[in-house]
């Protein structure tokens, strides 16, 4: 009789440990999906601001059509990117085109002094800060998920539980990070 009780206790413990591992992985998986969703919301917010910024700059620098086309194309590519790696690549390209747009703005003192341009630039800077915060949160959750999935004893059961792959980090080029940390300076 005591052997049967020991077997039942061991089985109950294994089921409890398995359930705890599974629930932990599911929780982190859901958190990473939620964190990615937050990034996409902030990116969409920024994409929605860009046409207004382009139109504001166009009003002062209409002959810079090539820059506007590149920004519009990079925005469309970034909006259509699917997945973490493709989004990161598109974001890096988009950031480069935004630098050229702000460089054009630097050449026009009246534009830099424009209330509309200043408000748009402030909103974009705020959005960039939110993107960075969302990215840090997402990458932290991905780190936690990948760690939990690969440490013992979870790694033994992760594949059996349906968690076979690590999640991708959302990494931007150092130049992208520098642009966000050091936004274009507006002088009067």
Note the topology:
Blueprint: H1 2-60, H2 65-80, H3 84-106, H4 109-113, H5 115-150, H6 154-158, H7 174-181
Helix pairs in contact: 1-2, 1-3, 1-5, 2-3
Folded structure, characterized:
Residues 175-181 and 184-188 have low confidence and may be disordered. The protein has helices spanning 2-60, 65-80, 84-106, 109-113, 115-150, 154-158, 174-181. The protein has 188 residues and is mainly alpha-helical. It is rod-shaped and about 90 Å long. It has 7 helices and no strands. It has one domain (2-181): LemA-like domain (de novo design (two linked rop proteins)), CATH 1.20.1440.
N-to-C SSE series? Answer: HHHHHHH
Global morphology: rod-shaped
| Class inferred from helices and paired strands | mainly alpha
CATH fold-level label? de novo design (two linked rop proteins)
| Beta strand % | under 5%
Count of the separate structural domains: 1
Summary tags:
single chain, 188 residues, de novo design (two linked rop proteins), 7 helices, 81% helix, disordered C terminus
Gist of the model:
With 188 residues, the protein is mainly α.
């Amino acid at each position: 009789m005591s052997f049967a009780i020991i077997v039942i206790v061991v089985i109950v413990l294994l089921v409890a440990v398995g359930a705890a591992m599974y629930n932990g992985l599911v929780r982190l998986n859901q958190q990473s999906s939620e964190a990615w969703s937050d990034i996409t919301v902030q990116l969409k917010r920024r994409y929605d601001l860009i046409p207004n910024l382009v139109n504001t700059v166009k009003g002062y620098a209409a002959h810079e059509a090539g820059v506007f086309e590149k920004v519009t194309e990079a925005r469309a590519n970034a909006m259509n990117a699917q997945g973490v790696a493709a989004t990161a690549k598109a974001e890096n390209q988009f950031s480069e085109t935004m630098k050229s747009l702000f460089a054009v703005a630097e050449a026009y003192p009246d534009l830099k002094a424009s209330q509309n341009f200043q408000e748009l630039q402030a909103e974009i800077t705020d959005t960039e800060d939110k993107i960075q915060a969302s990215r840090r949160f997402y990458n932290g959750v991905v780190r936690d998920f990948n760690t939990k999935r690969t440490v013992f004893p979870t790694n033994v059961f992760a594949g059996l539980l349906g968690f076979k792959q690590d999640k991708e980090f959302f990494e931007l080029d150092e130049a992208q990070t520098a642009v966000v940390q050091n936004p274009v300076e507006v002088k009067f």
